[in-house]
Design goal:
This protein is mainly beta. The chain has strands at residues 14-17, 20-28, 53-61, 67-76.
Length: 85
């Protein structure tokens, strides 16, 4: 499938099942938190950003890399406090 760039922030988990690749990401409608040296909340990035966040799931064909579909798994404002180390 090769390298794929996607919109969004946070941990982009990839899973392969058969001939499909699933990718997850989060996109915010509000003000973007500026990335620091860490992608996850905690020291270096204490705020996930403002506004409604969209947790998205993408499905790609493993061989061609073609996007087969995109679904929104959840939309809402982050509710939990940032993780601390």
């Amino acid at each position: 499938m090769g390298r794929r760039t996607s919109r969004g922030t946070g941990y982009r988990a990839r899973s392969c099942v058969g001939d499909k690749v699933f990718l997850t990401t989060v996109v915010s409608d509000g003000e973007k938190a500026q990335p620091k040296e860490r992608a996850l909340p905690g020291p270096g990035r204490p705020d996930p950003g403002q506004g409604v966040h969209h947790w998205l799931v993408y499905c790609y064909d493993l061989k061609s890399g073609k996007e087969l579909w995109k679904r929104e798994a959840h939309a809402g404002e982050p509710r939990s406090a940032p993780l601390q180390e």
